[in-house]
Amino acid sequence: MNTKRERKAYADQMGLFLEHLGLPPMAGRICGWLLVCDPPLQTAAELAEALGASRGSISTMTRQLVQFSLIERVAIPGERSRGYQVRTSGFTGVLKVQYEATVEIRKMADQGLVMLKGESPRARRRLEEFRDFYAFFEREFPLLIEKWERESARARRSK
Amino acid sequence: MNTKRERKAYADQMGLFLEHLGLPPMAGRICGWLLVCDPPLQTAAELAEALGASRGSISTMTRQLVQFSLIERVAIPGERSRGYQVRTSGFTGVLKVQYEATVEIRKMADQGLVMLKGESPRARRRLEEFRDFYAFFEREFPLLIEKWERESARARRSK
DNA sequence: CAAATATTTCAGTCAAGTCTGAAATATTTG
DNA sequence: CAAATATTTCAGACTTGACTGAAATATTTG
C-alpha cells in the first residue's frame, strides 16, 4: 500500500501550508488528507488510523473544521459512525474572516489617528498611510470575494 | 505621563492584530509603538523602556522587521545610537509574501491532481475546486498589488 | 589606543498551545 | 433495556518558539 503512504505525506505537507491560514497542525493534516483520500468520505476512526493521530485530537479538530465550514459531517447509510468530507466552498468563509480582520485593523488605525489629533502632520503621516493601506483592502476584499463567487458559480454551471 | 501609557496600550493591541500577519508578539508591539510614538524615531533603548522589553528581544525583533522592510534603521545626527521608524511602504512586501504562499499551495494542489490521475472525476473534483480557488488568487493578487501601488502613488502625489 | 557606550548573540527559562489516552458520556442496535 | 460501539472531554505530557539577561563583540569618542 504505497499509495497510502504517498497520500499521507501529501496530507502532512498540505497541513503545513494550511497552518499559515491559522489552522492547528492536525486540522491542516485532516484537510490535506480529505483532499486526496479514497474514498473521499472518511470516518473518525479512518482519519485517526491514516494520520496516526489519537481519537481525541481527531474529534477536537473535526469539530473546529466543521465550525469553520472547511469540512462537513455526513451520515453514512448502514454505518454506525459519521463520515467527514472536505467542503471546498468553505474556503470562501476563510476569506470573510480575513476581511473582518482587515476591518478591525483599519478601525484601530482610525482610533490611533484620533489619539494623535494634537500631533504635527509629519507625525500623523505614518498612521494615515497605514490606515489607507488597510482601507484599500477593506474596499477591495468584498469585490474580490464577489468576483470569485461569480466565477466559480459559472465554472460549476459549465461542467 | 498618561499619554505614554495610552500609547503603550495601543502598541500592545496593534501588536496583537499584527500577529495574524505572522509576526512574533514583540515585533508586532514594536510596529504598533512606532506608529504612534513621539518622536516617530526611537532608539533601541527607548523601545525597550517604552515596551518593557529586554534589549535582547528588541535587537532580535528590529533586525527581523528591518529584513521584512516594515521598519528602517537610520543614523541620528549627533547621537551614538541608531534610530528606528516605521516604513509604511513595507506593508506591500508582506502582500508579496502572501502571494508566494498562494502560488505554493496552487502548485501543491496541481501535484495532488497528478497523484489522483487514476481516480474517478467524482473523486478528483474536490481537489480541482481547491486548486481553482487558489489559482484565482494567484491571478488576482498581482493585479490588486498593482492597483494599490498605483492608487497610493497617486494619493501621495496629490498631497 | 583606551574608555565608554551600544549592539548582538546565545544558553536557559517560561508560556502557549497541541496532542495523547483514558475516563465519561452519548448513541445505536438487537 | 443492556450491550456494543462511537464520540467527546479533559488532565497531563510534550513541543515549539518567544523572551530574558548576561557575556561577548562591535562601535564610537576623546
Strand arrangement, major sheet of chain A:
1-3-2
Mean pLDDT score of chain A, rounded? 95
Number of domains of chain A: 2
Might you state the CATH topology name of the largest domain in chain A?
A: Arc Repressor Mutant, subunit A
Total number of strands of chain A: 3
Polypeptide structure, described:
- The structure is a homodimer of 159-residue chains.
- Chain A has 159 residues and is mainly alpha-helical.
- Helix content of chain A is 71%, strand content 8%.
- Chain A contains 6 helices and 3 strands.
- Chain A has helices at residues 2-19, 25-36, 44-51, 55-67, 91-115, 121-157; strands spanning 42-43, 71-75, 82-86.
- The two termini of chain A are 33 Å apart.
- Chains A and B meet through helix 1, helix 2, helix 5 and helix 6 of A and helix 1, helix 2, helix 5 and helix 6 of B.
- Chain B binds a DNA duplex (30 and 30 nucleotides) through residues 24-26, 43-45, 53-61, 63, 80-82.
Write the layout of secondary structure elements.
2 copies of one chain form a homodimer.
Chain A: H1 2-19, H2 25-36, E1 42-43, H3 44-51, H4 55-67, E2 71-75, E3 82-86, H5 91-115, H6 121-157
Antiparallel strand pairs in A: 1-3, 2-3
Helix pairs in contact in A: 1-2, 2-4, 3-4, 5-6
Chain B binds a DNA duplex (30 and 30 nucleotides) through residues 24-26, 43-45, 53-61, 63, 80-82.
